[in-house]
UniProtKB/TrEMBL annotation:
Its main location: membrane. It comes from Gadus morhua. The lineage of its organism: Eukaryota, Metazoa, Chordata, Craniata, Vertebrata. One of its GO terms (cellular component) is synapse. Residues 22-448 form the Integrin beta subunit VWA domain. The keyword Thylakoid does not apply. Keywords: Calcium, Cell adhesion, Cell membrane, Disulfide bond, EGF-like domain, Glycoprotein, Integrin, Magnesium, Membrane, Metal-binding, Repeat, Signal, Transmembrane, Transmembrane helix. Residues 14-64 form the PSI domain. This is Integrin beta.
Length: 748
């Protein structure tokens, strides 16, 4: 379990801070948040909001049942892109051609969890094209009209190189039929041109020929057209573009091209006020007998309005304009996606080349757009284009330099930050200028699976005042409390507050919580690992003693402001180790028998000794000389001085046997005596050789051995120190002799 400030990252704080009252609220906070449905999960004083935490924290708190729904993607329609050749015998209808895959998906979105799917686009060969030629027929375009009269058959012949299914249409425009755009005198209305020119009456927009595959019909009808005239230089082309986009003029669900040909600028929204027209353009079709009839009633459309309508109807625009107005229309192109600008010669003689070049430019680029997304939903794109070129951000929406037959892909991520008002929404994703689109159904995971098994008006929720779901009570309207035990009107009354005061004190919930319906609900802290709990929120797990800047020394858990130490540790901060292995001296005794082991460290009781295991004694003369007198008097002193010896040397326990560690000392009569000194269980002991002058040894076969810690070699049978001596007997009385005359001792 994680306690105290040891969690630097505080990963669950976002979930805790949300104060989610139900599982559904919890899973909308963030992807990492889960809800514990264990009935006995909460401790005294904990609010049900504690059930909402990050998954790791809930697991660390021993929660068994965690509600953590995940999002997923289902592909509903997934037809393969079409591999079609222009010279293929069996021609496909436009609706049978697929350039984008998949076509429909369903995304089940969990808040904060992005879902990513791949979208494939392949530019089909021999894809049908509809082209509508919209021409300015004001007086300055009289030379251009002559060159356009044969455009139909010439253009159809050239377009055969691109597609075998090509249709063409024609429309014209001049200006709004009100002052000050035209002269409204009867004579000027009949013939707006001056001099000997016979011009037709001014008009706003006329659909001359709906889309057809008959190039000769195009030529015939265009040949019958006449130039008109107006007063000001900008023309009413925007009115015409709007009607072409929204009216039924024969558009199919194929590539749609609009060629806008002019040698002048354009009026846009707001300019209608000059003629007393203030109503905004309604973006609807107003054609009667192929003539726009509401130019005097509605203002010009705005650029943004045109962008929307052109996009909605998948129309790609080619602005064929003279050199003089190139800068103006290039700026306009930057505002209208999937549009191109070509330089029209003074008499439109290069219009076919301009159209083909512009079409190739437009069709070599695919740009994805999506319909409006619900509030709280975001979409991001990553493109994987030709030759492995990738793009992100706005660049992730498009791929360029795509040839016929090339295949590119897009990684599209959809993420929701909250549940919208409707649990299901649909968005459309499509390449600009193409009629095909991908339908994406968004289902939002706003409730937990466990809520389906909720028990309405459960008796466990204070006699039916709430629904028991996901391990907690979801209170009915007007009810509150962990078990919905009281109404909101009963909150903060004195009787209820009295139940939240410990030992009749003045502090409500120990100032660490709120009294709700007579029960303390403890505060949550910035660090989710730090918890208040207890009936009166009197306990916490972060206000315990510290050692080494660690709560409970890092060797225990803080429970109700007291450290509960791990095994082998004690102390208020669990900083005292009970392990004595660090106190063992070289002789195997704890603190060399001259101290006590406290918290894993030796405290030397004999002031002469020091060091980590009380083995260092700078002033000691040596163990053997130090205890010589007491060993001598206790073992060999005689009757006269026995009482004084017992008084001064009573600390020493005497054992007469062969010693383990050898001490050799000379008495007053020049006799040698031998003993071993040791401290066992805090009691000094001397192991003494019983007879004076006797050499202590143990015969093992032909080797004599005794233990000790030195490596001193003596000659002629005399060996001193501590260690193990291996003695080899040199026999002088023959092979059967058992007593050595000479001894060689080796110590190590």
């Amino acid at each position: 379990m994680l306690f105290g400030g040891s969690w630097a990252q505080q990963e669950g704080s976002e979930c805790i801070k949300a104060n989610a009252q139900s599982c559904g609220e919890c899973i909308q906070v963030a992807e990492k948040c889960g809800w514990c449905t264990d009935e006995n999960f909460l401790r005294d004083g904990e609010s049900k909001t504690v059930r909402c935490d990050d998954i790791g924290s809930l697991s660390a708190k021993k929660c068994v049942k965690i509600e953590n729904p995940r999002g997923n993607i289902n592909i509903n329609i997934n037809k393969d892109v079409t591999n079609r050749k222009k010279d293929q015998a069996d021609k496909l209808k436009p609706e049978q051609i697929t350039q984008i895959q998949p076509q429909k998906l369903t995304l089940n979105l969990r808040s904060g969890e992005p879902l990513t799917f791949n979208l494939k686009f392949k530019r089909a060969e021999d894809y049908p094209i509809d082209l509508y030629y919209l021409m300015d027929l004001s007086f300055s375009m009289k030379d251009d009209l002559e060159n356009v009269k044969n455009l139909g058959t010439h253009l159809m012949r050239e377009m055969q190189e691109i597609t075998s299914d090509f249709r063409i249409g024609f429309g014209s425009f001049v200006e709004k039929t009100v002052m000050p755009y035209i002269s409204t005198t009867p004579a000027r209305l009949a013939n707006p041109c001056i001099g000997n020119y016979n011009c037709t009456s001014p008009f706003s927009y006329k659909n001359v020929l709906s889309l057809t595959n008959d190039g000769n019909q195009f030529n015939n009808l265009v040949s019958q057209q006449q130039i008109s005239g107006n007063l000001d230089s900008p023309e009413g082309g925007f009115d015409a573009i709007m009607q072409v986009a929204v009216c039924e003029i024969g558009w199919r669900n194929v590539t749609r091209l609009l060629v806008f040909s002019t040698d002048a600028g354009f009026h846009f929204a707001g300019d209608g006020k000059l003629g007393g027209i203030v109503l905004p353009n309604d973006g609807k079709c107003h054609l009667e007998n192929n003539m726009y009839t509401m130019s005097h009633y509605y203002d010009y459309p705005s650029i943004a309005h045109l962008v929307q309508k052109l996009s909605d109807h998948n129309i790609q625009t080619i602005f064929a304009v003279t050199e003089e107005f190139q800068p103006v229309y290039k700026e306009l192109k930057n505002l209208i996606p999937k549009s191109a600008v070509g330089t029209l010669s003074s008499n439109s003689s290069n219009v076919i080349k301009l159209i083909i070049d512009s079409y190739n430019s437009l069709s070599s680029e695919v740009i994805l757009e999506n319909s409006r997304v619900p509030e709280g939903v975001t979409i991001s794109y990553k493109s994987v284009c030709k030759n492995g070129v990738t793009g992100t951000g706005e660049g992730g929406r498009k791929c360029s330099n795509i040839s016929i037959g090339d295949e590119v892909s897009f990684q599209i991520s959809v993420e929701s930050t909250k549940c919208p008002s409707h649990n299901s929404e649909t968005i459309k994703i499509k390449p600009l200028g193409f009629t095909e689109e991908v339908e994406v159904v968004l289902n939002f995971i706003c409730e937990c699976e466990c809520s389906k098994g909720g028990v309405p008006n459960s008796k466990d929720c204070h006699n039916g005042n709430g629904t028991l779901e996901c391990g907690a009570c979801k209170c009915n309207a007007g009810r509150i409390g962990g078990k919905c035990e009281c109404s909101k009107d009963e909150l903060r009354t004195e009787d209820l507050d009295a139940n939240c005061r410990r030992d009749n004190g003045t502090d409500i919930c120990s100032n660490n919580g709120e009294c709700v319906c007579g029960t303390c609900e403890c505060k949550t802290r910035e660090n989710p690992a730090e918890i208040y709990n207890g009936k009166y929120c009197e306990c916490d797990n972060f206000n315990c003693d510290r050692s080494g800047n660690k709560l409970c020394g890092g060797h225990g858990q803080c429970e109700c402001r007291m450290c509960v130490c791990e095994a082998n540790y004690t102390g208020s901060a669990c900083d005292c180790s009970l392990d004595t292995s660090t106190c063992l001296a070289k002789n195997g005794q704890i603190c060399n028998g001259r101290g006590t082991c406290e918290c894993g460290e030796c405290k030397c009781t004999n002031p002469k000794f020091q060091g980590s295991t009380c083995e260092i004694c700078p002033t000691c003369p040596g163990v053997c000389p130090e205890h010589k007198d007491c060993v001598q008097c206790r073992a060999f002193g005689g009757e006269g001085d026995k009482l004084a010896c017992e008084q001064s040397c009573g600390y020493l326990t005497l054992v007469k046997s062969f010693p383990l560690t050898h001490c050799k000392e000379r008495d007053a009569n020049d006799c040698w005596f031998y003993y071993t000194f040791a401290v066992r269980n805090d009691t000094p002991e001397a192991y003494v050789v019983e007879e004076l002058g006797m050499w202590p040894s143990v015969v093992i076969g032909r080797l004599w051995a005794w233990p000790g810690p030195s490596a001193e070699i003596g000659r002629k049978g005399v060996a001193r120190g501590h260690g193990v001596a291996l003695s080899h007997a040199l026999k002088t009385n023959g092979p059967r002799s058992t007593q050595p005359r000479h001894v060689i001792s080796i110590y190590f």
